[in-house]
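hiii so um. not sure if this is the right channel but i have a protein structure encoded as tokens and i wanna go backwards to a sequence. like what aa goes where. can anyone help
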């Protein structure tokens, strides 16, 4: 078994494609991609925060103060379009000529006024438009209410008690690490699980289907080594590369997190990083170890069953979709870890990683996840060994 393991590792070292997927992808390519995405997202956000929204007001009179306020607002620009009906407003918004149209009825004393606002809620900048419009309307509404209260003879000192009778002070009891884990935990889990799977994928495709195409599998089968030792050596190779990829991803995240915290002087990030210890990294490996074994056994079985490399790639694509999708479920708001979700492979590891990042992972839940994933790993390895024993599988035509 160990001779097979050494043989496969030596062959992988000569394969540039494998080195790229196992080493360069988590260490260099992935940080560059994530950095470019973050830079692009920051650029787009800055652009959205500076965007001027084009508006038009169709008013029947009486609210000139609001029209003046909107005219001098730095985030709103009045359109030169002459609109007189709702249909014209809808057409202008659909064609992208204008962002916002307000229909304001004639002002009447002692009545409630119903304003109508037209805008495209599917727009990319809708969130920013809604925020700016709400602020403008809220400020004008408060000013209008104060003038009505003064007209009723209510002293200005009492306005705050009437307009805002309750002042709420929210106290966040969560620690910095808990908030960090809640936000970043699912993303970290997704990166670790995907890096483990992708790191194991390319070696797995080569040691089974690749050897069939090269015609070297037959030579290996007639050697004195038992078939169980052969398949276990290949399994250990695939599992090893998956764990190497995971390790590099962890080191990469720690390195760039410390660099970002130091360069940009982000005090909160520096404090949060100091709260993580070696035991957290060990627990993370305990969670990833049986999952890496599951990935390795499944990928080896697919590679062994496939007639050629192309067929193995097709199987890999079909298996990769659900495996890479499940960690995203951990990002769903309100989806928490319990005894039932702890039995779902991959998802349980993603949820446990999030709880570990928060510092709230319970030991009994961790052992439940570890034991359930380990049981699946043992069953998968047994299935892979049995598959390798069959001549009809090894020499499919």
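sure thing!! here u go:
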């Amino acid at each position: 078994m160990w001779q097979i393991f050494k043989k496969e590792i030596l062959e992988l070292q000569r394969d540039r494609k494998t080195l790229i997927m196992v080493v360069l992808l988590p260490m260099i390519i992935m940080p560059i991609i994530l950095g470019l995405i973050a830079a692009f997202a920051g650029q787009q956000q800055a652009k959205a925060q500076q965007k001027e929204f084009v508006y038009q007001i169709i008013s029947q009179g009486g609210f000139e103060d609001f029209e003046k306020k909107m005219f001098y607002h730095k985030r709103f620009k009045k359109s030169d379009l002459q609109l007189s009906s709702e249909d014209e407003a809808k057409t202008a918004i659909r064609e992208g000529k204008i962002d916002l149209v307000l229909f304001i009825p004639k002002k009447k004393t002692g009545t409630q006024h119903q304003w109508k606002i037209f805008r495209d809620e599917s727009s990319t900048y809708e969130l920013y438009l809604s925020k700016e419009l709400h602020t403008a309307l809220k400020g004008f509404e408060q000013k209008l209410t104060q003038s009505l209260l003064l007209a009723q003879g209510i002293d200005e000192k009492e306005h705050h008690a009437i307009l805002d009778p309750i002042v709420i002070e929210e106290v966040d009891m969560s620690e910095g690490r808990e908030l960090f884990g809640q936000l970043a935990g699912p993303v970290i889990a997704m990166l670790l699980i995907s890096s483990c799977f992708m790191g194991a994928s390319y070696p797995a495709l080569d040691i089974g289907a690749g050897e069939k195409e090269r015609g070297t599998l037959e030579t290996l089968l007639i050697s004195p080594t038992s078939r169980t030792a052969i398949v276990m050596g290949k399994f250990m190779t695939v599992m090893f590369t998956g764990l190497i990829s995971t390790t590099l991803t962890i080191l990469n995240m720690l390195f760039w997190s410390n660099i970002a915290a130091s360069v940009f002087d982000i005090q909160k990030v520096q404090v949060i990083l100091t709260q993580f210890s070696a035991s957290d990294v060990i627990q993370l490996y305990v969670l990833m170890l049986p999952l890496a074994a599951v990935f390795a056994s499944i990928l080896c079985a697919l590679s062994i069953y496939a007639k050629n490399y192309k067929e193995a790639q097709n199987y890999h694509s079909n298996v990769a979709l659900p495996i890479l999708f499940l960690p995203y479920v951990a990002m769903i708001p309100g989806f928490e870890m319990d005894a039932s979700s702890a039995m779902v492979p991959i998802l349980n590891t993603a949820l446990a990683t999030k709880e570990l990042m928060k510092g709230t992972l319970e030991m009994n839940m961790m052992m439940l996840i570890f034991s359930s994933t380990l049981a699946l790993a043992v069953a998968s390895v047994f299935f892979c060994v049995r598959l390798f024993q069959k001549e009809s599988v090894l020499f499919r035509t």
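oh and The chain has two domains: 2-29+176-394, 54-163.
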